[in-house]
Amino acid sequence: MVSSTLSEQSINDLVVHKLIKDQHGPASIALRAGTSPITASAQRLIDDISQHYADKLGKGYGKFEEDETNFPMPRLIREHVLEGRMDFATLARQMMEHLRDRVDAEQLASGGYVLIARSRNSLSDQLLVAMITEAMGTAITDSLEIIDSPHLDFANLRVAGRIDLQAWQAGAERYISFLKGRAEVAQYFKLFLGCNDVVIALKETQKLVKTLNHFADTQGLEQGARDELMQRAHGYLDELGESSTPLSLGEVAEKVWPDAPQRLNDALNEESVDLASGFVPDRRAIRPLVRFKANAPQWKLEFDRASLRSGAVVYDRRSDTVILSNIPAELKRALLEE
């Protein structure tokens, strides 16, 4: 997916339209004539939205649905990006018409400003769609009067998604991300994007295990603290896997690293990790959290981390050897026969 280095983004095209809808009411759209100029303010807006999007927890991931009749987004994207038969203003207008139809069927949905932008950085070419609402704040005038001042409410960004156009063209397994948020919001917006969720539990669990190991490395944990972290992670994820309960990355951070959950939360939600939320952990893939496994041409070895603490397994750094204690009788007999 997209690098989190937002300062390197360059906006190619940008349009801001408006979706008008009250809860339980019909939807309509107010369209801007043509694209928006790429100004310093526009760049700052894209950077702010991208940063808030990156910081949001609980994203869904997927790829385009194959049914382009009911899910026209891949056709629209293809006509704009690959075939060049549709300019960006037309693409954004047709996207808004499709969004209106999806929102109209969702009673609890509400409207806002809809920003559609295509931007690039060193790693990707992406299409961003975000709906932003206004909030009332306070400002002080030049004459020192206190007045109400509306502003864009980035903190409550709930409806947004990105399509990695480069990954899409390369045939990646998944190239769409979206905020999961409230179920009804996530559902209509996912349908608008034409996104077929792709959450492969085994691969996501393997990525989670790798991220936990990387986190332990970056925290400079002593062996005992590292083992405790891994034991807590294994215990919690194993419970979820046994009960077929989807995980929340925020809850993983709270359970696994309760002394400083925000640090682990930041690591799990780093965009370069590209880790989904809401999958059921694969119990096979969490074994490396509490077990070491290695092999060479002439041997194989597997043992629990707890063996290092108990002394049943000792690694001698000076001689670069592993010493095993409490050898079972059958292994002794086999060794003595050699």
UniProtKB/TrEMBL annotation:
UniProt main location, coarse: cytoplasm
**Mind listing the UniProt keywords for this protein, alphabetically?**
Cytoplasm
Q: Does the keyword Amino-acid biosynthesis apply?
A: no
Indicate the secretion signal residues. none
Keyword Cytoplasm recorded = yes
Cell compartment(s), UniProt: Cytoplasm
Family named by the database record:
Belongs to the YejK family.
What PANTHER family does this protein map onto?
NUCLEOID-ASSOCIATED PROTEIN YEJK (PTHR38772:SF1), PTHR38772
Q: What is this protein called?
A: Nucleoid-associated protein
State the species of origin: Uliginosibacterium silvisoli
